[in-house]
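Inputs:
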Amino acid sequence: MIKINNISKSYHKTEALKNISLKVNRGELFGLIGPDGAGKTTLMRILTTLLLPNSGEAIMDKLDIVKDFKKIRHIVGYMPGRFSLYQDLTVEENLQFFATVFGTTVKENYELIRDIYYQIEPFKTRRAGKLSGGMKQKLALSCALIHKPKILILDEPTTGVDAVSRKEFWEMLKKLQKKDITILVSTPYMDEAILCDRVALMQNGEILDVDSPSKITKKFPRKIIQVRSENMFQLINDLRQYTKAESVFAFGQYAHFTGINDDVEPSELDLYLQKLGHKKVFVEKITPGIEDVFMELMKTS
Amino acid sequence: MTQLLAFIKKEFYHISRDPRTMLILFGIPIAQLLIFGTVIKSEINDIHIAIYDQSKDETTQQITNKILSSGYFILEENLNNLDEIDAIFKKGKVREVIVFENDFGKKLVKEGTAKMQLIADASDPNTARLAISYTKGIVNDYIVKTNPNLKMPLEIRPEVRMYYNENMKSAYMFVPGTMALILMLISTMMTSISITREKELGTMEVLLVSPLKPVQIIVGKVIPYLFLSIINAFVIILIGRFVFEVPITGSFILLMLETILFILMALCLGILISTVAKNQMVAMFISMIGLMLPTIIISGFIFPIENMPIVLQWFSNIMPARWYIVILRGIMLKGIGITFIWKETLILLGMTFFFIALSIKKFKVRLE
């Protein structure tokens, strides 16, 4: 459905995308995972015909993103990273405006957005600027869907949205996928990555790996020990000082420890930390998550 | 077409829901007109003067009375010696001092000539010149009337008639000028800001990834503001007519049609600015600084174009307001028809098409 061949893009001297190639299948829920500045937004803007690549080509549903940009604008639904609806228009007015602009009516495609829109319908006379973060995203998604696009491109749709709304949002994407809409979504959150069919890990304008989330984690051969103690900052510093430490990263309330080899045992770390005076030390071996893979890939790239 | 209508409807929502826009659109023009109306003046009123009368006879008394009863001057002080003149000017309130020599009345009758001195504070040359010439006029008038047989330098008086503005009312000058200035500023600023705002808020990104054509976006932006600016122009004409008593001697319909043309030109210029400006600040800066000063200075609004250096004269040709002011003065004051102003109309029409064509060409269908 989406075919990207050797696309490069630079702003002045900064290379935002370096020779990127990617394929997204029809009906897939595809995730672009990576930190800020990885090039996710640039790639999405190129696909939505908002930017021209410096080199390379991309095909969206058999249409060339440069030559056929007008046609692509009919079949793509796009939700930019920033909330980009009219804040001074009400929920209903926004939806109607975008429906009309795309040459359709709210009624005609109501079926498609019903599950999403019914949650914000009670507030339809409220100005969009006065909605909560979660409701804004639902409205933006409704507006991006109102013309029944073949391809839906969402740029960090859940940034700044509460945990419950995030979960609901992803459930909606799963439902939309069943309605034969190909979805390309970017996110900086690793926990959302596992909800995608396949993901591309991006870093500094390059794609590190493309695969299903489960396969990606299986590729990670290393043993991970997660550690917790009362003083997180000191804990990370001390772990990094440990002679057998290769990498230590903070993940929420835990630190993930990778040793120079896989012989490092949890009990060994426990003892080491106790000696240094850490309290409430908790050590446990875990299966690596997608974050660990990402950290490892970033290190080697 | 339905797309365009939806776009126009959306614009009206924006305008009606933003108090700032409403204020710029309707508050500023009225305030500006009233401010210009009271500030720019080529006539004088209530000039404070002092008189040093060394003669104190009947003639000087009569002349003084005549000057004070003219309505232009207010007597601040009677002076008693020459040194006081300097002092009183330094205080700043008095703009003119009239000095009569000793035995003014007697000398006038006996020798046929008497001397009076008019001293003006020329730190404001305009007022000084006007005050002097008004005083001269009054004195001459008095002497000629009371001594019809006398021949003396003072009585030489040029016969002046001010066509179309007999009383040299400055309102006749500034109402057309201010109208051009306001319509120009408001129209360009409103459209350029409203488009750059969409860029700034990111909504332009969504509009671009829609099947909307550049023409639809541009026309959709122009129509609501055209409508509002016409109302604006109407209000300005009303204020000019009823507050400043500027007549409309020509056809009102022609006046409105020319005004619509001028507004349309300014709106398209605003769109052109928005294709260049990245954000609202830049758009506002270009419309305010880039347009306001030239419009005030070299469009013939205040300073006559014929007196400018040749380069500026040439430059004033590309100021749309220049042509519109000629049209306005023609219709409002001279009462002339289209046969006399077709050239100016054609120039405005040409500028409008030029700006539309260039905006559509320069309108970016992509980001950056």
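Chain A has two domains: 2-217, 220-300. Flag for discussion at group meeting.
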